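Quick one, tokens below:
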């Protein structure tokens, strides 16, 4: 430790010395002959000591006039002869800066301002070199109203770029009113500042070879409005052929474009303010008075109003530079190499400015200030302004954020307005390139929290990575480094980061990619973006993590869906065809060489060298495994095994699949099948613990699975398998029933929408091979389903949640009995999939069961997804009473149940459940009883902070499309916008008057803005892969773990399965073969024989599938045994703030992502929807009904029941620290019950929509079987 501190101190002292000392710069004259005249520059030499801050040498030429002195409000004209008499022009000082508000640039009074400011500067390794170096042309930023070339001095450019083998050119262009005022006619032409830049680029193309530069290897780069300018040139027919590569730092054309976000370019406003010209006169071409005023005004007066200009000047459309808006010109861009990116907290720069000038104080940051700044940015939204404000506040500050949390609102403003003004536009720019097929793009985001050069330290936001943060590093700016040294803010990382920027940017200029190896992949053509996160001098690649996903969703999808595009209506139709565009280019090309027609050095080479990229020719070699060459049957040897328990003696079986681990099934275990954990249940009554298995004390044989609980269809797990109301059995698979060691226990709850499923679907052979062999006891069980398990009147006549109460009894059995089977009753992990996972989640909320286990795994569902009231659904009881027994809604709601009771008790159980064959929404868990006394939102603070493993499949909803197509109900051609809207009507009926808005948002976000109505593959993916996966699954998961995080739970791990070749699919969806469907993990976790055999028979299986199965088994049992999925730190837990970290299960070697779990779904359903509509739950659920005290009373009473059969069993006594000392009776919730009935009697539920389309029969197998 001491050595490390000493070394750091030495580094810091060395830096301080290097930066504080005066640089010794040796300068001599250097001259160059060019076709436009002889120029005298300087050769500068900083020495060769690379430990100095500045070192190296270069030839520099400062203040070259690339055009003739410009006439005010006229187009620039190329300067073809520097001096009239042919004398040498000395170019050894920066030219004057262009007029701008303030006292000067780069410092007050340091360099004069002038209208004759159109100069450029060249820094070259060797002006006489025969080798032609790549060229980097830099365009400065400043909102098109500030800035100058001298802000980017040659000393930093020489050491960090020129030394690396490039020629650097910096330019100036007219700014503010003098550069961007326009009447959209030749009287006051548009985009004069941009036309200046075009002339500078023409000069470089025409002249740079005389300075050692290669005119056919030009990279233009810029920051902020300079980055926007670079982007604009990629769209322009005048300039897009004048360079070969582009770097855009923190700005693209859309950022500074007229019409974008509703802004004009200030010309009309300035005409009124400066010359008192009315809007009518301006619009009608009455410009005589204005012309006289503008031409005679002092240039300082023309620009001074920019001191209060927050939005900057704008590039206009409609001239030869930009004949249309970028959206329409995008298809005409050249597919060149592009490097593009941003700072994490761009907007923080403006907050630093406000606070530095004393305009704003920390205490000003509040909801009110957020809304004030939003009024500036969001004025164009008109009637959608209130909606978008609510969305932004909920998304960036949080739902129900306190109004005066200053730090929260400072960060919210930075996040929201960084997205509005920067990153959302950057997304659009590179997405347009991707649409063109450009595969040579690289993306970055700088998150280095200690960046130097900050003008103010924001209180409680010291890590803000502000707009311009990278500039000091790239240009190695002396002023910023000296200030950092004087304040002690600098360290070795800063120096190294500067080196990284110089090397990376020049690599791009020299080789067309930022890294010479493949460590920085380009942006993929589909899927989440890969980008470089510049965390410091050793940046981190975020593979397929998505760049600023939230910003893209809010501004490019939600906003567009609600309001339409950023641009007003008059820009909706393209004005130029490709033919028109090419005509402008052809005419422009005549101007490109206007000064050099007789210069033979400027002729393009007669031959172009072709560099073909290497194509790897890796041969795929498959290893054939013996068990894949045949079916996966394995033989087992079975013998009886018995166990004595306090509830009676049980006879199970010891099964042995052998010890050959190359077999599909191997290992041995003691199994006990069909143990009746409760007495035979009475219809519509609570289950009662079975304290004695046989009346006469004889041994009960438990060697076969018990019958499945009644459900629609022909049986479970196979057709014609028996069903019964006496179905409440469980199964135990244990390594050794006689073991003195107590193994961790994994208790599994099956899925099926609370209406399908059975324990026999999860057979012991796979459980033994993949779970029990790894040192755990596995328990599976059954619970009542459908009408028999979830029908309720919210009273004890027909109690709520009977199926969940069955599960509670199974948990009590495990807690009470599992030690007799070799299990540890104090290490129980509850796990389940789909509705089974929703059940697991529900138990974490329930006062009856949350203390009966220590850990939980929820696969592809949580309680909210199957909860009454969520998304407006009831639990079908009222509907079934009417359909089965012809009971009116009025009789149901007023307690007239005699006729209904008689009907339901006498009815054949098959008839009670048969209607679930057309049930798309499943049954629901209800609130208001002792199992679930309130809705999950209100019970969340009462949950125990236990280890949680949670996750989903990438394309959950595709399972239902597979079902439809496998049954022949739907065809590929049915997948259209119309089908999307039909399915949305089922899921979204609760939205009321917001339904249309949300539909438009979903279509734009998940299918794309202006998606074609009949693109079948697009709409299949929009429905299956994303929109309804988010509605029904992942948005609820986000809520669940966010509630845990709010409780302070730090022991949670998250996953997403994206493995595209998963076996077990019901049907191969056309055009969507990579769908990762609901239940895709089950075949791997449970090593399901049927699915593996089918995969073998079709040749679909490979070694990855076997390895993935092993991974699931090892990971799930690691969690059960150790309370974490990985024993090392390779899988981090979910962070308490910031984007979620999760495991992307891409195959048997999953990848950690840190870009947020299904961020789009969370934003749309948990933030945008809540902002527009309110919460999922209706209004009467808004107030919590139970206090923590009430909750604990139920827990205390429930604890009496937990050991009801074990009071005389000394092995089951709880440790003294966990014993309850207070027992009180349960509270009733009649008020809650009556309000629930009232709501569901008056609300139109989506159930009535299910019969509007004949094809809805597809839900016969709607949830996993």
């Amino acid at each position: 430790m001491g050595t490390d501190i000493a070394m750091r101190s030495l580094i810091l002292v060395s830096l301080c010395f290097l930066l504080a000392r005066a640089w010794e710069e040796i300068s001599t004259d250097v001259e160059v002959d060019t076709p436009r005249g002889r120029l005298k520059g300087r050769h500068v030499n900083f020495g060769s000591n690379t430990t100095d801050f500045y070192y190296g040498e270069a030839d520099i030429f400062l203040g070259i006039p690339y055009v003739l002195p410009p006439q005010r409000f006229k187009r620039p004209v190329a300067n073809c002869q520097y001096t009239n008499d042919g004398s040498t022009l000395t170019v050894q000082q920066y030219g004057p800066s262009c007029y701008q508000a303030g006292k000067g640039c780069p410092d007050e009074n340091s360099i004069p301002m002038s209208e004759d400011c159109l100069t450029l500067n060249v820094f070259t390794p060797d002006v006489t070199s025969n080798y032609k170096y790549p060229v980097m042309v830099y365009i400065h930023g400043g909102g098109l109203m500030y800035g100058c070339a001298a802000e980017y001095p040659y000393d930093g450019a020489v050491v960090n770029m020129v030394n690396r083998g490039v020629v650097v050119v910096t330019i100036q262009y007219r700014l503010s009113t003098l550069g961007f005022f326009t009447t959209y006619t030749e009287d006051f032409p548009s985009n004069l500042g941009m036309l200046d830049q075009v002339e500078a680029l023409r000069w470089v193309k025409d002249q740079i070879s005389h300075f050692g530069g290669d005119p056919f290897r030009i990279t233009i780069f810029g920051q902020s409005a300079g980055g926007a300018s670079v982007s604009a040139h990629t769209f322009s027919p005048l300039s897009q052929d004048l360079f070969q590569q582009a770097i855009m730092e923190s700005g693209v054309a859309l950022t500074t474009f007229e019409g974008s976000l509703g802004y004009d370019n200030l010309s009309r406003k300035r005409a009124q303010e400066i010359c008192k010209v009315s809007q009518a006169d301006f619009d009608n071409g009455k410009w005589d008075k204005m012309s006289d005023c503008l031409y005679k005004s002092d240039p300082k007066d023309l620009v001074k109003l920019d001191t209060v200009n927050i939005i900057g000047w704008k590039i206009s459309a409609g001239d030869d530079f930009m004949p249309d808006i970028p959206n329409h010109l995008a298809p005409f861009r050249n597919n060149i190499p592009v490097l593009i990116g941003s700072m994490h907290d761009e907007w923080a720069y403006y907050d630093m400015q406000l606070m530095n000038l004393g305009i704003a104080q920390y205490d000003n940051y509040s909801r009110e200030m957020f809304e004030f700044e939003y009024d500036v940015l969001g004025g164009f939204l008109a009637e959608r302004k209130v909606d978008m404000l609510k969305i932004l506040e909920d998304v960036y500050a949080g739902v129900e954020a306190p109004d005066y949390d200053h730090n929260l609102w400072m960060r919210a403003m930075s996040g929201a307005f960084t997205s509005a003004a920067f990153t959302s536009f950057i997304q659009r720019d590179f997405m347009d390139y991707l649409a063109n097929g450009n595969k040579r793009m690289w993306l970055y985001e700088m998150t280095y929290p200690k960046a130097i050069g900050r003008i103010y330290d924001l209180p409680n936001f010291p890590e803000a990575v502000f707009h311009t943060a990278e500039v000091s590093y790239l240009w190695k700016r002396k002023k910023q480094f000296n200030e950092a040294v004087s304040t002690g803010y600098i360290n070795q990382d800063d120096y190294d980061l500067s080196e990284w920027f110089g090397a990376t940017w020049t690599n791009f200029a020299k080789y067309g990619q930022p890294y010479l190896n493949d460590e920085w992949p380009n942006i993929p053509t589909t899927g989440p973006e890969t980008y470089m996160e510049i965390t410091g001098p050793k940046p981190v690649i975020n593979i397929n993590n998505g760049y600023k996903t939230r910003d893209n969703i809010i501004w490019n999808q939600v906003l567009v869906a609600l309001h339409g595009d950023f641009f007003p209506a008059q820009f909706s139709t393209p004005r130029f065809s490709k033919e028109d565009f090419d005509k402008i280019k052809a005419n422009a090309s005549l101007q490109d060489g206007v000064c050099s027609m007789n210069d033979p050095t400027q002729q393009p080479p007669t031959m172009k060298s072709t560099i073909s990229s290497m194509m790897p020719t890796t041969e795929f070699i498959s290893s054939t495994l013996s068990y894949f060459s045949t079916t996966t049957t394995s033989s087992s040897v079975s013998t009886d095994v018995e166990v004595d328990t306090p509830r009676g003696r049980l006879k199970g079986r010891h099964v042995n699949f052998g010890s050959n681990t190359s077999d599909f099934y191997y290992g041995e275990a003691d199994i006990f099948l069909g143990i009746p954990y409760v007495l035979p249940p009475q219809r519509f009554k609570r289950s009662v613990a079975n304290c004695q298995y046989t009346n006469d004390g004889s041994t009960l044989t438990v060697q076969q699975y018990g019958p499945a609980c009644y459900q629609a269809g022909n049986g479970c797990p196979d057709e014609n398998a028996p069903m019964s109301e006496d179905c409440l059995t469980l199964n135990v698979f244990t390594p050794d029933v006689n073991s003195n060691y107590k193994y961790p226990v994994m208790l599994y709850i099956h899925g099926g929408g609370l209406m399908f499923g059975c324990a026999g679907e999860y057979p012991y052979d796979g459980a033994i091979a993949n779970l029990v062999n790894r040192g755990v006891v596995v328990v599976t069980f059954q619970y009542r389903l459908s009408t028999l398990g979830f029908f309720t009147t919210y009273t004890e006549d027909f109690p709520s949640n009977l199926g969940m109460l069955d599960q509670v009894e199974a948990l009590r059995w495990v807690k009470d009995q599992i030690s007799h089977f070799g299990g540890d009753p104090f290490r129980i992990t509850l796990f389940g999939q789909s509705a089974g996972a929703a059940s697991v989640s529900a138990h974490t909320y329930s006062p009856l069961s949350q203390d009966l286990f220590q850990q939980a795994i929820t696969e592809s569902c949580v309680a909210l997804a199957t909860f009454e009231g969520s998304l407006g659904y009831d639990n079908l009881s009222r509907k079934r009473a009417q359909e089965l027994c012809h009971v009116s809604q009025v009789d149901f709601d007023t307690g007239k149940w005699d006729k209904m009771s008689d009907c339901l008790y006498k009815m054949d159980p098959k008839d009670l459940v048969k209607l679930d064959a057309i049930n798309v929404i499943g049954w629901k868990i209800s609130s208001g009883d002792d199992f679930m006394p309130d809705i999950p939102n209100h019970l969340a603070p009462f949950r125990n902070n236990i280890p949680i493993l949670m996750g989903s499949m990438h394309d959950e909803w595709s399972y239902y499309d597979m079902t439809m197509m496998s049954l022949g109900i739907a065809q590929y051609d049915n997948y259209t916008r119309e089908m999307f809207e039909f399915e949305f009507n089922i899921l979204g009926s609760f939205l009321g008057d917001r339904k249309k808005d949300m539909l438009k948002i979903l279509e734009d976000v998940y299918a794309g803005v202006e998606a074609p109505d009949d693109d079948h593959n697009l709409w299949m993916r929009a429905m299956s892969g994303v929109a309804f996966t988010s509605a029904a699954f992942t948005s609820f998961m986000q809520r669940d773990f966010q509630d845990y995080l709010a409780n302070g739970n730090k022991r949670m791990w998250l996953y997403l399965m994206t493995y595209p070749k998963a076996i077990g699919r019901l049907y191969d969806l056309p055009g969507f073969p990579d769908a990762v469907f609901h239940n895709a993990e089950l075949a791997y976790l449970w090593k399901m024989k049927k699915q593996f055999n089918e995969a073998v028979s079709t040749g679909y299986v490979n070694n990855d599938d076997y390895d993935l199965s092993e991974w699931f088994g090892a990971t799930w049992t690691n969690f059960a045994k150790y309370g974490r999925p990985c024993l090392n730190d390779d899988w981090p837990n979910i962070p308490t703030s910031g984007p979620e970290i999760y495991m992307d299960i891409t195959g048997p070697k999953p990848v950690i992502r840190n870009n947020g779990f299904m961020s789009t779904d969370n934003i749309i359903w948990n933030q945008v929807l809540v902002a527009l509509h309110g919460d999922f739950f209706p209004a009467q659920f808004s107030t919590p009904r139970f206090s923590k005290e009430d909750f604990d009373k139920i827990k205390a009473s429930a604890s009496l029941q937990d050991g009801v059969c074990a009071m005389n069993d000394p092995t089951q006594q709880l440790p003294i620290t966990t014993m309850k000392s207070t027992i009180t009776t349960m509270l009733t919730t009649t008020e809650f019950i009556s309000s629930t009935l009232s709501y569901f009697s008056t609300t139109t539920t989506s159930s009535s929509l299910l019969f509007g389309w004949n094809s809805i029969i597809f839900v016969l197998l709607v949830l996993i079987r």
